[in-house]
Amino acid sequence: MALGHRGFVRKRTTLLFLVFALFYVAVAGRLFYLQVLRHDHFKKRAAAIRFRQIPITASRGSIYDRNGDPLAVNIETASIFANLREMPDKSKTACQVAMLLDRKPNSIEEKLNSGRSFVWLDRQIDARIGDEVWKRRTSLPGIGVQRDTKRVYPAGPLAAQILGFTNIDNVGAEGIEHFRNSILKGVDGEYRAELDSHRRVIPETRHIMRNPENGRDIYLTIDSTIQHIAEQAIGNMAEKYHPKSACAIVLDPSTGEILALANYPTFDPNNARKSKPAFWRNRAVADLYEPGSTLKMVTAAAALNEGISPNTVLTYCTGREKIKGGRLTCTLHRPFQNGHGRTDMYRMIEQSCNIAAAHLAMRLGSKKLYKYEKAFGLIDRTYAGFGCEAPCSIAPPEDWRLMRLANIGFGQGLATTPLQMAGVYATIANNGVRIEPTIIREIRNPDGTIYKAFKHGKKTRVISSEAADMATKLLVNCVENGTGKTAGIDGRTVAGKTGSAQVAREDGRGYESGSFIASFMGFAPASKPRLVIAVVVNRPQGSHWGATVASPVFKEIGEKSLWYLKVPSDAPDKNETKPKRDGDRNRVAFSGSSNNSFLAF
Ligand SMILES: [Zn+2]
Questions:
Q1: What's the gap in Å between 354 CA and the centre of ligand 1?
Q2: How remote is the CA of residue 293 from the centroid of ligand 1, in Å?
Q3: Fold of 58-220
Q4: Which residues, 6+ apart, have CB-to-CB distance to 533 below 8 Å?
Q5: Does 357 score more than 60 pLDDT?
Q6: Is residue 55 a contact partner of residue 198, using CB atoms and an 8 Å limit?
Q7: Cα 434 to chain centroid, rounded
Q8: Among the listed residues 204, 212, 323, 288, the one whose alpha carbon sits nearest the alpha carbon of residue 517
Q9: Are 482 and 268 contacting, i.e. CB atoms less than 8 angstroms apart?
């Protein structure tokens, strides 16, 4: 019995020994596995926890006008954040931080109680306030400061729709900022640093892995002064006629450079989010409209280039005419209440005769007219550098019925952008050679060296130099004797054409009743064109005539810009009986539309 008991105890001891032995073998094996076999793996993991790769933000490129005036630049700012895991007393911290940031303590406390472990308390604030917070960091556990930059637009709303703006993370959200973000943003760098037990960077351990490549600077073709003149002129018109929207474009016909592009309504890109998104829209390039009578000039230019004489009588206009598929009508005024009568190309442009333009279009035929419309840049999308240019909307010429052809002849049934139409007048002003318009003049590296030099857009001859000359004569006659009189500038020869078109309905079924687009397109001085100016006003109130609403804008922009560019006068000044001194000329040039003696249309 006793032996039996001893034997039992020995057996149990042996078993226990074996169990322990196995346990130690397992532990040793696991240790060997972890420390020897997986050594590298765990070393890497430990390093990953202790070290961190942190991006170094590249500085965003600036945007300048053609003369190097800054339009979009960066300023140093600070952003304040809270790390809640390290904050012992939220309400005490909230009070202290609120004082420094000049905010209400409960608005800060609300953020601290949001339940997240990391929150931004304020972003892109004055760098000096950031410095104040940083100085007090030992008494503000859990509060941190990050150096940041902020995009500012020193000229305020100037050229807002061209520039666009960036979001809080400095990424382009609209305009050139958005569409040329890849040029401006640069490439972020990176540094590696060790973290302390609170997972904060230990500054002495910073090690730069890759330096940031700063963004490139963009120089636009616009001239801030002309841009300002154009915006002011559009604004003056808007005060009087309260349109839904409007735009003005100023082009240099010899290079295709856009010197100004103004939109109404407008906004301040420094506070973009405070205005409606509709205000951000660059209507001059992103919106399509039916150009109306300004398009008659394409029909006329095509006919002139095809050898039709400007003195050939095209039709006898009685104000209305039936053709297959519909009826043509002219808008009539004194002394043409009974129609425009015997109408040649001169009268067609001078009095804006729809019926004569329709006849001219029918004479050319749809294929030929379409060919010229394409050559003038109306069919294909423009690539001026904005990135948001709308494509034209038009059916192929094979599908045009007679009525469609007649309508297109005088400007309806085809939708283009205001910039495309400005391009038509620039082509005529440039002796018949079209140059694709551009908004970006050059791109420079951060060190100031040129990355992409200015090169004007593609050049193509659209009409002969003789045809362009004749077309200019038709336009000068329109301003001197016809509907364009209100665009006349004293001391300058002016070529141009009015337009008043109904607004096409969005569903494509006919036109909105009572809604018009008033426009004027032209150039000056006609003898040696320096500026092409296009004005398009969408749904003005009180008058819908291009001559009343749009021509004065053309005149104001032309008068002031030519004076600013010191372009010598090429016509006698009707207001002058004797030559004036320079000082007097300044006064005349900036007197605005003091002699507004325009006609009834
Ligand atoms: Zn007519």
A1: 5
A2: 12
A3: Penicillin-binding protein 2a (Domain 2) (3.90.1310)
A4: 248, 249, 250, 251, 422, 520, 521, 522, 523, 524, 554, 557, 558, 561
A5: yes
A6: no
A7: 23
A8: 288
A9: no
Distance in Å, CA 349 to ligand 1 centroid: 10
Q: How far apart are the first and last CA of the chain?
A: 133
Pure H helices in 211-353: 224-241, 283-286, 296-305, 345-350
- Residue 363's identity, in one-letter code, is R
DSSP state of 214: P
Partners of 166 in beta bridges: 172
Give the pLDDT confidence score for residue 6 in this predicted structure: 77
CATH architecture, domain defined by 285-589: 3-Layer(aba) Sandwich (3.40)
Per-residue pLDDT tens over the stretch 185-202: 999 899 888 877 766 678
pTM: 0.83
Question: Helix or strand or coil: residue 211?
Answer: coil
Provide the residue ranges of all domains of the chain, joining segments of one domain with +. 58-220, 285-589
Residue 289 carries which DSSP code? B
Report the separation in Å between the CA atom of 138 and the middle of ligand 1, taken as the mean of its atom positions.
Answer: 83
Bigger pLDDT: 312 vs 580: 312
Q: How far is the CA of 330 from the centre of ligand 1 (A)?
A: 5
CA of 314 to the centre of ligand 1 (A): 10
CA 494 to ligand 1 center in whole angstroms: 24
> For the chain, what percentages of helix, strand and coil (3-state, to nearest 5) are there?
40, 25, 35
C-alpha separations of 454 from 60, 444, 449 in Å:
21, 11, 13
CA of residue 483 to ligand 1 center, whole Å: 13
* Cα Rg of the chain (Å, integer): 35
Distances (CA, A) of 69 to 63, 158, 595: 9, 12, 34
Stated as kind and residue range, the H or E segment containing 499 is: strand 495-504
The residue behind tokens 């960066």 is 74
Q: Distance between CA atoms of 431 and 419, rounded to whole angstroms?
A: 19
The DSSP result for 529-597, as a single string, is --EEEEEEEES-SS---HHHHTHHHHHHHHHHHHHHTTPPP-S--TT-SSPPPHHHHHHHHTS-STT--
Lookup result for tokens 């090690």:
207
434's CB contacts (< 8 A; 6+ apart) are: 375, 376, 377, 423, 426, 427, 459, 460, 461, 462
Chain center to CA of 443: 17
How far is the centre of ligand 1, averaged over its atoms, from the C-alpha of 333 (Å)?
Answer: 10
φ/ψ bin of 401: left (φ > 0), alpha (ψ from -120 to 50), beta (otherwise) = beta
Cα torsion angle, 358, 360, 364, 369, sign: negative
Token pair recorded at residue 221? 């073709």
Whether the predicted pLDDT of 238 surpasses 70: yes
